[in-house]
Structures are given as structure tokens and as C-alpha cells.
Amino acid sequence: MSNFPNFSHKDIKDIVIKDVGKYDQNKFKPFAHPHNVYFAYLTGGGILLFSIFIWFWLQVVNIIYRLNKAPEDKWLIFNGSRVVLIVLAVGLINRLLINMA
């Protein structure tokens, strides 16, 4: 999480060789995030930020559920549900999709 400029390949090469047996520099490139929204919040902010993230999305789902009782706001329910599904579901499997490509 934005720590790549603080380390170079020589800093991790020996540890990777000891653990894996060989070092492929192409596997260790600077990426902005782990391609998983849950890991990003958990590793970037720890348990506190991850808890706030989960609380926020539970509140969003709660608001959508409460709005579901009002028949004139069905478009808001539909679109709000899609946003939650896209952010949380794709955020969970995004890393899996990248590994399969």
C-alpha cells in the first residue's frame, strides 16, 4: 500500500528466494492496490478502517431496505442495490478475475 518506493528488489530478493526458491522480478511490481476492496481497507487501515468500511455498507443496505417500503422510490432501490452489488461483489472477486486472465 504505497510502500513500494521504500523498498527495492534487492531488499526482498533474498527472502523470496529463501521462501519460494527463485526470484522473478516481474512478480513484484508496484501496484496501487491489491485488487480486492476488502484487503485494501484491511491492510491499508487495519481493523478500525475495515470496521468503518463494513459499517458504512451495512448502513447503505439498511437505507435501501427502509426505502423499499415506499413504492414511489423503486428506481432508487434498484439502482442503490446495483451499486452495493457492484462495489461489494466485484470488489470481492476482482482479484480472482485478474488471476484467471
Please, could you describe this protein's structure?
The protein has 101 residues and is mainly alpha-helical. It folds into 2 domains: 1-32, no CATH class; 34-101, no CATH class. The chain is built from 3 helices and no strands. Helix 2 packs antiparallel against helix 3 (74-100). The chain is elongated, with a radius of gyration of 19 Å. The two termini are 23 Å apart. 1% of the residues are buried. The model has no long low-confidence stretch (mean pLDDT 76).
List the helices and strands and how they pair.
Layout: H1 9-20, H2 37-67, H3 74-100
Helix pairs in contact: 2-3
Descriptive labels:
mainly alpha; 3 helices; 101 residues; single chain; 2 domains
Number of domains: 2
Alpha plus pi helix count: 3
- Overall shape: it is elongated
Low-confidence stretches: none
Summed over residues and divided by their number, the pLDDT gives a mean of: 76
How do the SSEs run, as a string of H and E? HHH
Instruction: Briefly note the structural class of the backbone.
Output: mainly alpha
Short description:
The chain has 101 residues and is mainly alpha-helical.
